[in-house]
């Protein structure tokens, strides 16, 4: 993290940082797109382009499949294809291993030591999250984990982040979401939460603060964000760093 002079938060109300996983805690984009391509080829479906995958990233598998295939394909088929893709993805991760992205472990340690509660709010199945958190060694950092099985609606609906805040016993206005996908940033703003965008597309996400990597994030970012106005719905200004 980038060193700065730190601001002081005077409120004693609990505060939390809620993290997305894929693309935020770990770099999993290649494993995801290869899994989509392999399963589509095996099932006889036309290959998907990288641009299509980029639009899908951060959203629930069944949601993007319904959008892709339309109403002609039955729910049972969508679920079967989606489950096959996620199983292939887990096999790919097990084969290559899982490492946290640069800056992740340092930030998790720093935030915990500073009294922040830490949670996961992800569109992924719990089987994926368990594998990622166990293999990466990050599991013990988090006080609550919310997966796609815990909610009825996926991002950009705010349910996943509101559920995480509830489990962390933190008011949404005292929660900050770290995300790498536009759907997640929109979901966070709809939940009344402040946002940090990270990753190669950080400057296109509409987050309140955006950085290419967590290493670039100033040390006072989370304290400072809590003093800024909560975005209304999915509208916010974006400050790019790094």
From TrEMBL:
The keyword Ribonucleoprotein does not apply. Its cofactor is Mg(2+). It holds the Pfam family HAD_2. The keyword Signal does not apply. InterPro entries: Beta-PGM-like, HAD-like_sf, HAD-SF_hydro_IA, HAD_2, HAD_sf, PGP-like_dom2. Keywords: Carbohydrate metabolism, Isomerase, Magnesium, Metal-binding. Residues 223-242 are annotated as: Disordered. It is an enzyme of class 5 (isomerase). GO terms for molecular function: beta-phosphoglucomutase activity; metal ion binding. Its EC number is 5.4.2.6. CDD domains: HAD_BPGM-like (cd07505). Belongs to the HAD-like hydrolase superfamily. CbbY/CbbZ/Gph/YieH family. NCBIfam families: HAD-SF-IA-v3 (TIGR01509). This is Beta-phosphoglucomutase. It comes from uncultured Thermomicrobiales bacterium. The lineage of its organism: Bacteria, Pseudomonadati, Thermomicrobiota, Thermomicrobia, Thermomicrobiales.
């Amino acid at each position: 993290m980038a060193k700065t002079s730190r601001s002081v938060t005077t409120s004693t109300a609990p505060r939390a940082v809620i993290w997305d996983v894929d693309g935020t805690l770990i770099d999993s984009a290649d494993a995801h797109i290869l899994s989509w391509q392999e399963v589509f080829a095996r099932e006889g479906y036309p290959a998907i382009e990288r641009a299509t995958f980029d639009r899908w990233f951060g959203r629930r598998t069944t949601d993007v499949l319904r959008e892709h295939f339309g109403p002609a394909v039955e729910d049972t088929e969508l679920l079967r294809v989606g489950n096959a893709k996620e199983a292939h993805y887990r096999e790919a991760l097990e084969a290559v291993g899982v490492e946290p992205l640069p800056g992740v472990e340092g930030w998790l340690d720093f935030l915990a030591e500073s009294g922040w509660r830490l949670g996961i709010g992800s569109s992924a199945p719990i089987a994926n999250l368990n594998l990622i958190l166990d293999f990466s060694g990050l599991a013990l950092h988090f006080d609550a984990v919310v997966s796609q099985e815990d909610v009825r609606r996926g991002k950009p609906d705010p349910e996943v982040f509101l559920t995480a805040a509830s489990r962390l016993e933190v008011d949404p206005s005292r929660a900050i979401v770290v995300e790498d996908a536009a759907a997640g940033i929109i979901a966070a703003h709809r939940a009344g939460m402040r946002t940090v965008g990270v990753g190669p597309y950080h400057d296109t996400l509409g987050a309140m603060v955006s950085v290419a990597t967590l290493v670039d994030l100033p040390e006072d970012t989370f304290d400072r964000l809590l003093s800024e106005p909560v975005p209304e719905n999915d509208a916010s200004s974006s400050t790019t760093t790094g």
